[in-house]
C-alpha cells in the first residue's frame, strides 16, 4: 500500500498517512493484521463504533483516519470530565457486550462465551471525534463472556501506573466506571484477565505488582 509520513507509533504498530481521510496501520514485525481488520469490520457491521476498514493486506490495514483526542489525553487536559468518561467506557462495553462474536474468532482463555471481546478497551484506545467515540486497536480481540471485557477495563483502570498529574482524574474515572457496571458479573473473570495481562511483554514490573495487590483486594479467597 502507498503510504506517506508517520503519524503515530505504538509498541507493535505504526500509523502512516495514506491520502485524504485514510491511514495505514502497519505491524512492525510484519505479522498479518487481516484478522484484526475482519474483527473491526464485524464490529462496525453490528453498529459498534470501530474505524472503517477499506482494505487489508498482510501487515497493513487501510482504514479511515480517526481524528480526535483519546480519553486519556482528555483526562489529563480536563480532570473534571473524568467521571463522564468513565461512564462512557461502561456504555461502550455494554454495547459491545451485545455483539455476538464471529464463529472463527479464537476463544479467550478462561472466559467461555460467544460475545465479541476487545480486551484492551481503556482510555488510550477510545478517541473522541466530532461523530462520537471510536474504539481503536483491536489486536487482542477474542470470543468469550462479556464480563471478561468489563473485567479487563476495570483491571487496567485500577492498576496501570499514571503520573501524579492525572491520578485524581483516574480515580474519578474509575469510580464512575464502577458505578455503571455490574462488578459481581465481572469479578469472576479478573484472575484470567490478570494472567493475560501479566503475560504481556510490554507491561512493567510496577504494573505487575499493582495487579497482584488488586487481585488480593478484589478477589479474596472464598
What does this molecule look like?
The protein is of the alpha+beta class and 222 residues long. The chain folds into 2 domains: 6-64, Phosphorylase Kinase, domain 1 (2-Layer Sandwich), CATH 3.30.200; 71-218, Alpha-Beta Complex (Aminoglycoside 3'-phosphotransferase, Chain: A, domain 2). It is built from 8 helices and 9 strands. The protein has helices spanning 34-45, 71-77, 82-97, 146-159, 164-180, 183-186, 190-198, 205-218, and strands at residues 6-9, 13-17, 22-27, 53-57, 60-64, 115-117, 126-129, 132-135, 142-144. The chain has a 5-stranded antiparallel sheet, with helices on one face. Strand 1 and strand 2 form a beta hairpin. It is globular.
Main beta sheet: 5 strands, antiparallel
The residue ranges in which pLDDT falls below 50 over 5 or more consecutive positions are none
Strand order of the largest sheet: 1-2-3-5-4
Give the integer mean of the pLDDT values.
94
General form: globular
CATH architectural arrangement of the largest domain: Alpha-Beta Complex
From the alpha-carbon coordinates, what is the Rg to the nearest angstrom? 17 Å
Distance between the termini: 54 Å
- What structural class do you assign from the helix and strand content? alpha+beta
Tell me the series of helices and strands, N- to C-terminal: EEEHEEHHEEEEHHHHH
β-strand number: 9
Q: What is the C-level CATH assignment of the largest domain?
A: Alpha Beta
**Strand portion:** 15-25%
CATH topology of the largest domain: Aminoglycoside 3'-phosphotransferase, Chain: A, domain 2
Overall helicity: 40-55%
Count of domain modules: 2
Amino acid at each position: 500500500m502507498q503510504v506517506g509520513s508517520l503519524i503515530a507509533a505504538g509498541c507493535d504498530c505504526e500509523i502512516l498517512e495514506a491520502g485524504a481521510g485514510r491511514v495505514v496501520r502497519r505491524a512492525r514485525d510484519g505479522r498479518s493484521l487481516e484478522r484484526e481488520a475482519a474483527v473491526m469490520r464485524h464490529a462496525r457491521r453490528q453498529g459498534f463504533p470501530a474505524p472503517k476498514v477499506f482494505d487489508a493486506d498482510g501487515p497493513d490495514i487501510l482504514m479511515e483516519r480517526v481524528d480526535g483526542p483519546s480519553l486519556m489525553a482528555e483526562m489529563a487536559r480536563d480532570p473534571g470530565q473524568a467521571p463522564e468518561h468513565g461512564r462512557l467506557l461502561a456504555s461502550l462495553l455494554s454495547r459491545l457486550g451485545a455483539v455476538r462474536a464471529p464463529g472463527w474468532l479464537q476463544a479467550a482463555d478462561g472466559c467461555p462465551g460467544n460475545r465479541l471481546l476487545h480486551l484492551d478497551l481503556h482510555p488510550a484506545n477510545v478517541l473522541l471525534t466530532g461523530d462520537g467515540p471510536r474504539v481503536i486497536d483491536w489486536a487482542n480481540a477474542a470470543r468469550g463472556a462479556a464480563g471478561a471485557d468489563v473485567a479487563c477495563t476495570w483491571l487496567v483502570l485500577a492498576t496501570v501506573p499514571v503520573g501524579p498529574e492525572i491520578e485524581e482524574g483516574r480515580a474519578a474515572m474509575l469510580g464512575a466506571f464502577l458505578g455503571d457496571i455490574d462488578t459481581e458479573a465481572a469479578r469472576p473473570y479478573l484472575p484470567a484477565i490478570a494472567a493475560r495481562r501479566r503475560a504481556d511483554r510490554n507491561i512493567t514490573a510496577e504494573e505487575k505488582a499493582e495487579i497482584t495487590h488488586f487481585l488480593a483486594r478484589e478477589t479474596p479467597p472464598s
